[in-house]
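WARN no homologs supplied; continuing
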Amino acid sequence: MALLEFYGTECPHCIRMAPLVDQLRAAGFTVEQFETWHDASHAAKLAEYDRGLCGGVPFFINTESGKHICGGTDYETLKAWAEGK
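OK structure emitted
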């Protein structure tokens, strides 16, 4: 299973999500991160996974469950996403 986060360095919503992603990592989850605003290859990868679901960042996708989160959320929702719920 891959947990992917697409973000932008200066994105205020992404900045607010960073501590929650860190908390998720501390709970034992591995989240692969891709900065899309300054890396064209990561932006292309975002388009590949997004497929019209979100259209922006932050965008989280669980490749096993297919569940995604568009934008900011709370820790409980982020953890449920990581667990595939």
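The mean pLDDT is 96.
OK
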